[in-house]
Amino acid sequence: MAQSPRYLQIKQYLNDKIQTRTWPPGFKIPTEIELSEQFSVSRMTANKAIRDLVGDGLLKRTPRLGTFVCHKKAESPLMEIRNIADEVRNRGHDYSSQIISQNSVEAKDDVALRIGVRNGTMIYFTQIVHYENGVPIQLEERWVNPDFAPQYLDQDFTAQTPNEYLVQTCPLSDIEHTVEAIIPINRITSLLEMNEGEPCLLLNRRTWSDKNLISTALLYHPGNKYKLSSRTKV
């Protein structure tokens, strides 16, 4: 480190503070002037270190207020299904969940159409909030055809996620995804601890095993805490 350029030393110092959460998300970092005095460098040198971390998405400048540690967005692949609990733990974070609902319901209108049953058919429904380090990052509302997963409601979904159980019980053959940005209703914002009027990402998902349509789900993510990614070979 002693042989590296001074701006890289400052960048490494700032990065270490962020990664160890000594400076948690939302923390206001020292000013350029304070950093230049601390490291005995020019303000331009301190500015370059900060600009690099802004470009990396770790810091955010707010005019007239200062520079703050970003709330880093969780990320999920769009073109495949992964267990959200594994995603969170693979990032080195703590995963937890809260079961809001787990029961049988009548499939009506759009839900009946999406899961491929007649209107009024009894199906399974779960509503679960998934947390990363105690912060809600996804509200999962899932409807399951009991013909293909008859033991679904008997599961402890605090010990395993619905996705984990269904993948084991009904190996996936096809998935369908659509994504849209929405302003959620109050019920959703409350469960995800969002501010009124704050946008979220809504992922509509349907899954098949062989030729059987197993489940349909609505996955809500706070827009400022989550992103979806896709990578395709050409």
TrEMBL record:
Which intervals hold domain HTH gntR-type? 4-72
Q: Which InterPro entries match?
A: Bact_HTH_transcr_reg, Chorismate_lyase_/UTRA_dom_sf, His_ut_repres, Tscrpt_reg_HTH_GntR, UTRA, WH-like_DNA-bd_sf, WH_DNA-bd_sf
Q: Gene3D superfamilies this protein is in?
A: Chorismate lyase-like (3.40.1410.10), Winged helix-like DNA-binding domain superfamily/Winged helix DNA-binding domain (1.10.10.10)
SUPFAM superfamilies linked to this entry: Chorismate lyase-like, Winged helix' DNA-binding domain
Q: What molecular functions are annotated in GO for this chain?
A: DNA binding; DNA-binding transcription factor activity
Say if the entry is tagged with keyword NADP.
no
Which keywords accompany this UniProt record? DNA-binding, Transcription, Transcription regulation
Q: Name one GO biological process term.
A: L-histidine metabolic process
Instruction: Decide whether keyword Cell cycle is in the record.
Output: no
Q: Give the Pfam families listed for this entry.
A: GntR, UTRA
By its UniProt entry, which CDD domains does this protein fall under? WHTH_GntR
This protein's name: Histidine utilization repressor
